[in-house]
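REQUEST FORM: STRUCTURE PREDICTION
Request ID: SP-0412
Submitted by: Lab K.M.
Chain count: 1
Length (residues): 210
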Amino acid sequence: MKRTMATCAALLVPLLMLSAPVDAQQRTVTGERVLTLEARGSYGFPIGDFANEFVEAESDVGMGFGASLMMNANIGIYAGWTRDMFDCEICGAGDEIRVTGYEAGVQFEAPQMAGNIVPWVRGGLIAHRTRFLIEEVDFQTDRELGFQGSVGFDAPIFGDWFSVSPSVRYNSITPELEIVDIGPIELGGDMDIQYLSFDLGLRFHVPRNW
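STATUS: Completed
RESULT:
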């Protein structure tokens, strides 16, 4: 987990170093919008024990929806729903692992860069269930709290109303499993689920003075 957070920090530093305003008198995009709605697609990469032990999860796609509310030009709050899906070493056709639930936290947006690019970083909590659909076994964990962090940027399209937002997201939860046999594997106890997700979102922005 420490290595993963160091990676996220390394990604954030260059964005913040480049986030100085191009023109001191230019109004920033973050100062003009108050509400943002987002739909995103994702591709997740299991890390740690989630990838190397238990069911040996493998990369697959996901999706999410959310909204953010800016309290001032730089600080806001966000909330949403997401489903990240994974294949696995013992998964057959149609088998999958689903990590689904809610997310909420604080968002920081830096001043806009050249081209009206707006770097941002988020940190917050997730409340997710993990569902295993493997070899005719269908069971899910209770909803567990975990941690989320992400870093990315907004690139405007169609003026200030829409933007695309590529980002890297880190999720970590530790659900407690009842003992379940899945083929040759017995799952039980605490399961450390960590993964990185490369997201691409489409955002709709509502201006503050709309």
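NOTES: The radius of gyration is 19 Å.
Reviewed by: T.R.
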